[in-house]
Amino acid sequence: MIFYSFFKTLVGKEVAVELKNDVVFTGTLHSVDQYLNVKLLNVKVVNPDKFPQLCSLKNCFVRGSVVRYIQIPTEHVDTELLQDAARKENAAKK
Amino acid sequence: MAATLKEWKNESVTVITCDGRIIVGILAGHDQVQNLVLKDAEERVYSMEEAVELVPLGLYVIRGDNVALVGDSSSWENSLQAEPLPAVFQHVI
Fold first, then answer.
1. Is the ipTM of this complex over 0.95?
2. Is A3 at the interface with chain B, CB within 8 A?
3. Which of A13, A88, B31, B66 is deepest in the core (most CB within 10 A)?
4. Which residue of A has its CA nearest to B70?
């Protein structure tokens, strides 16, 4: 739940999503769900020379199970808030 | 906001499967685990030697486990030559 809540705070921001098939997309985070499936708007392929077939994609839904990384700009991350949330979740679990 | 495929219902979509295939079709149906029903589906096979090969598939059901990405389907360049997409790499123990 913590990462779902975290990504909900990033809706509207530019993120880069790297999939397990090595494709990297940048786009605006439109929505996320409990499985961390991600919907991105206005996507751009980071390596258009390697994956030219995907350059015509505009909006896409990426299944959470195929995501390797989601790169977020540091200025959008409140690390203290995250640490607090993590601590609370761990305390709740115990 | 939940991420769903609702907005693409009855639209032409591009599906990338976990084995690296690109399938284009009209999204007739879907469920919460991304099982998909595609109408008039066709697979776009890319290679370095030839132009794009279009394989007509008709009515297709794709199990959600194998879906990597679902996107909109805009202009396609049929003369593009490219290496096929890599498969989603999963560790095999």
1. no
2. no
3. B66
4. A61
Q: How many CB atoms lie within 10 A of CB A86?
A: 13
pLDDT tens profile B4-59 = 899 999 999 999 999 999 999 999 999 999 999 999 999 999 988 888 899 999 99
Q: Which residues contact B7 (CB under 8 A, 6 or more apart)?
A: none
**A24-31 contacts at long range (C-beta below 8 A, 24 or more positions apart):** A25/A54, A25/A57, A25/A60, A25/A62, A27/A59, A27/A60, A30/A59, A30/B1, A30/B3, A31/B1, A31/B2, A31/B3, A31/B4
Please tell me the distance from the alpha carbon of residue A68 to that of residue B20, in angstroms, as a whole number.
16
Query: Which residues lie closer than 8 Å to B79 by C-beta, 6 or more apart?
Result: B51, B52
